[in-house]
Amino acid sequence: MCCFMASKKNMYRLFLLIPSLFYAGISFSQQVFNIEADYVLYEDGEILFFKKNNSGFDCINFYVFNTDIEIDTFKTSQNEFTEEKNNIIPLSDFKKIKSKRLFKFLRRYEFYNNYFSQKRVIYEDNYHIFREEDYTVNNISIEYFRKTYIFYINNEYAILLLYQYRETESLLYVFPLKKHLNAYYYDGYNTELFKVDKHKKKNEIDLPYTCILNCCKIKEKKNNFLLVNKFSGEKLINKKFDKLKITDSFVFGYKKGKKYIYSCNLNKINLKNVSALHYFNDISLNSIQIIQNKQIFWIDKFGNKSKKPKVLEMFVCGNEPSYEKHILKINNKFYYIEKYYDNREELNLCDTSQFILPKKITEIKFYNNGFTDYYYNEDSNINKILFILKNKNNKYSLAEVEKQKNKIIIKTILLKDADTIEYIKQNIRFYKNGLYGYYPQNKKAKYKYLGDFNYYFARFELPDGKKGWTDKKGNEYFDK
Questions:
Q1: What does the alpha-carbon distance between residue 448 and residue 463 come to, in Å, rounded to a whole number?
Q2: Is residue 459 within 8 Å of 295, Cβ to Cβ?
Q3: Is 247 a residue whose pLDDT tops 80?
Q4: How would DSSP label each residue in 105-148?
Q5: Which residues, at least 6 apart from 276, have a Cβ–Cβ distance to it below 8 Å?
Q6: CA–CA separation, 139 vs 196, rounded Å?
Q7: C-alpha to C-alpha distance for 188 and 67, rounded to whole angstroms
Q8: Mean pLDDT of 348-353
Q9: Residues 27, 28, 29, 30: what is their CA dihedral angle, to the nearest 10 degrees?
């Protein structure tokens, strides 16, 4: 609860009994509020509106509680109001914005994200082998503000509130003022104020979330789809589509087999001479990778093009349950040893099983070509782990196994008699009879040359000299 005039609030709190002269028709589920006021105050994640009366001020206090908007009303004296006057913003400082123009005003400002690199470390002690790795976390959607509220004041001014609740609440109040834009970001504990000069050519606020796409919705009309402002119904893109999709950072439209892409501020992205693209909707990239004129480029959420991706880093602090797995060879027999460590990094389980292998197999390794590997949580099931088998003729196979009590047998041979099998950048590449392939994309080796994956695409050349790119699903895009 806001600390402003706390004692008086307890005395004068009327719990929505002030007449509708001050505010009209508010219900807790609505997203647009029409308010009459002379002054505005932001304090500790809450917003207060003041309306002058004969003896002082009527005040209405909006705040978020248990994921819903709560409203308190009370009266305050002229003296108490004067004590807080340095923090109070008069309506005369606000920019006049009609409801239909609020969205257009916000589109001039860019809101972008900060993330940290994920680094997991297994510390060296009596049980552990030291290992440190940096990697990209895939398939995690960025958490945007899920609720949007708009306060219209005296039918001339507007304030935007974006709200997200996860472990803690996150609030973003946007105040469009005459000289600049004020953005108050509240993380549940502290407030940070960002002031953006409207005269800058490129206005950016270093905030953890973006808000523009949260104001959009898809409207179906006569078997076509439109992108509209979900508050005013205003059409935001002057085009009808056969299909529309709003993601965390982009809008994708489809019309007669043609794809259209719009940035987070709804500017159209040029796709001329683009032969392939892939959208990374994950927490660290959140960009589009494209192949254009035989080269790889990246497009960020604002539509900026670059040769290298902007990897947003994330750091995870603390431990989590992990599995340490080993393959040991004792008297020409192979054993599988699994150690489980809880989130306190204490050894909780140690299990040993014997591999039952055909006589022609001389060696078995994890598919990373090592005798030790680490897994986290759901990746630990041995039936989901691939192994590389080496036979007497120095040929390699890729196999799935199955555990039966304390024994492990070969279940399925996925690749057979390859000259090499290597694990590169989380991809399995094999070489057989002078040609290369990736598993599981290629059932047989087919490429004269096959490069490493640059995120989603890898360069190739066929035996007949044709060149192009292949993707993680095995699709091919030939040079034009």
A1: 5
A2: no
A3: yes
A4: HHTTEEEE---B--EEEEPPSSS---EEEE-PPPS-------EE
A5: 290, 291, 457, 469, 471, 475, 477
A6: 33
A7: 12
A8: 75
A9: 50
**The two structure tokens encoding residue 422:** 């290597």
Residue 235 confidence (pLDDT): 87
Helix (H/G/I), strand (E/B), else coil: 379 = helix
Mean pLDDT for all residues in the chain: 76
Distance of alpha carbon 34 from alpha carbon 23, whole angstroms: 6
CA separation for the pair 4, 80 (Å, rounded): 9
DSSP annotation of 179: S
Domain ranges of the chain: 1-93+149-199, 105-144+210-308, 322-418
Tell me how many degrees the CA angle 302-305-311 measures, rounded to the nearest 5. 75
- Output the CA torsion sign for 401, 403, 404, 408: positive
Amino acid at 439: Y
Q: Strand 32-35 to strand 147-153: parallel, antiparallel, or no bridges (unpaired)?
A: parallel
Please state whether the predicted TM-score (pTM) of the whole model is above 0.70. no
Q: Rounded distance, CA 451 to CA 43, Å?
A: 56
Q: Which amino acid is at 444?
A: K
Please name the amino acid found at residue 363.
E
Q: Is 362 helix (H, G, I), strand (E, B) or coil?
A: strand
Question: pLDDT tens digit string along 260-279?
Answer: 999 887 889 988 889 999 99
Give how far Cα 466 sits from Cα of 20, 431, 479, 480, Å.
74, 19, 8, 10
Start-to-end CA distance of the chain, whole Å, equals 63
What CA–CA distance (Å, rounded) separates 66 from 164?
Answer: 11
Q: Residue 14: name the closest of 67, 62, 68, 71 by CA.
A: 71
User: DSSP strand E in 29-67: where?
Assistant: 32-35, 39-43, 46-52, 56-65
The alpha carbon torsion through 361, 367, 369, 373 (nearest 10 deg) reads: -120
CA angle 20, 22, 27 (to 5 degrees): 60
